[in-house]
Amino acid sequence: MGKLYDVIIIGGGPAGLAAGLYAGRARLSTLLIEKDKEGGQIVQTAEIENYPGGLAEESGPTLIDRMSSQADKFGVEKVIDTIEDMELAGKEKLLTGKKDTYRAKAVIIAAGASPVPIGCPGEKEFTGKGVSYCATCDAAFFEDFEVYVVGGGDSAVEEALYLTKFARKVTIIHRRDQLRAAKSIQEKAFANEKIDFLWDSVVKELKGDGLLESMVVENVKTKEKTEIKASEEDGTFGVFVFIGFKPASEIFEGKVRMDNGYIVTDPDMKTNVEGVFAAGDIRVKSLRQVVTAAADGAIAAVQAGKYIEENE
Predict the structure, then answer these.
(1) Are both 4-115+245-310 and 131-241 of the same fold?
(2) How far is CA 277 from CA 7, 33, 37, 86, in A?
(3) Pick the catalytic residue: 81, 137, 281, 296?
(4) β-pair type (225-229, 238-241)
(5) Positive or negative: CA dihedral 291, 297, 298, 299
(6) 114-154 pLDDT tens trace
(7) How does pLDDT run across 13-55, given as a tens digit for each residue?
(8) Cα–Cα distance for residue pair 188/86, rounded to 1 Å
(9) Cα separations (Å) of 255 from 123, 147, 249?
(10) 134 annotated active-site
């Protein structure tokens, strides 16, 4: 058997890196396991304006680089591996990866979540260049521009309402002829003069040269396609996608308590399993932002340290 760590963190996004920083600084032997590359969703963000104390020209990669360096400074070990199975009950936690097996006294799950994409040509190329999955993050970049919101559920309509504080016009694109959002939310949207609706429609393609400049929309009933272009004056517009989020939690099914795929924790990031904590986008929470992920990670690491002390 390999080394018995005090804490193993699954996931190298802001929650995992913050947890590593706090655990390492507390002199806990800490291993961070990331399946791909550090940073999670935030590394796709070209500009960050709402992280407290961020640089004047902050981006996802620059913020993650600094977070990663801080974790390294305090002795956090890192490995690239994909966890495939685990035994979390008992005082010693056992994690089985594709490459190796790992042991720890406490585990912090920070595997994250990702937005469900439209899945159309051009979406990936224009993410961060007109396409966004977070109104709170990016609304300010589209002040006085036109924006489109894809989706018809609670999140989509709530985000559309939020966007009206910045954009001059917001159009909700929905594949059905009526919204799925709660009636109270719908009423607010219908009463808002800035919000328009494009019913029975789906986005088929996103186009542009550097920035998003047009999109092709198809009517699901008539199959008629229409190309919507940015005004000459603006040169671009925003497309905000809110058709769902998918937590990276499949591997934890049956291991910890979940709600609709998200891990349930208390305010101290404790799951229903002793010595197992969750932080960031993978847990049930009301706001998924870098700042709340970092806070979750810090709390989880401190609580993990207390758990280890109490069970020595």
Answers:
(1) yes
(2) 10, 15, 22, 14
(3) 137
(4) unpaired
(5) positive
(6) 889 999 999 999 999 999 998 888 999 999 999 999 999 98
(7) 999 999 999 999 999 999 999 998 888 777 767 678 788 998 8
(8) 46
(9) 35, 41, 10
(10) yes
Three-class HEC string of 110-159? CCCEEECCCCCCCCCCCECCCEECCHHHHHHHHCCCEEEEECCCHHHHHH
Percent above pLDDT 70 for the chain: 99
Distance of alpha carbon 232 from alpha carbon 221, whole angstroms:
31
Backbone angles phi, psi at 206, to 5 degrees: -120, 135
Our answer to whether residue 259 is catalytic in this structure is no
Which residue in 81, 138, 281, 296 is the catalytic one?
A: 138
User: Which superfamily does CATH assign the domain made up of 131-241 to?
Assistant: FAD/NAD(P)-binding domain (3.50.50.60)
Q: Structural domain boundaries of the chain?
A: 4-115+245-310, 131-241
Catalytic option among 81, 134, 281, 296: 134
- What's residue 40's pLDDT? 79
CA distance 277 to 273: 8
Superfamily of domain 4-115+245-310: FAD/NAD(P)-binding domain (3.50.50.60)
Q: What percent of the chain has pLDDT over 90?
A: 85
What gap in Å lies between CA 64 and CA 21, rounded to an integer? Answer: 12
* pLDDT attached to residue 1: 63
Helix (H, G, I), strand (E, B) or coil at 243: coil
Q: Which DSSP state fits 42?
A: G
Tell me the β-bridge partners of 115.
245
CA atoms within 13 A on the CB side of 236: 15
Task: Check the CA dihedral 240-295-110-42 and report its sign.
Answer: positive
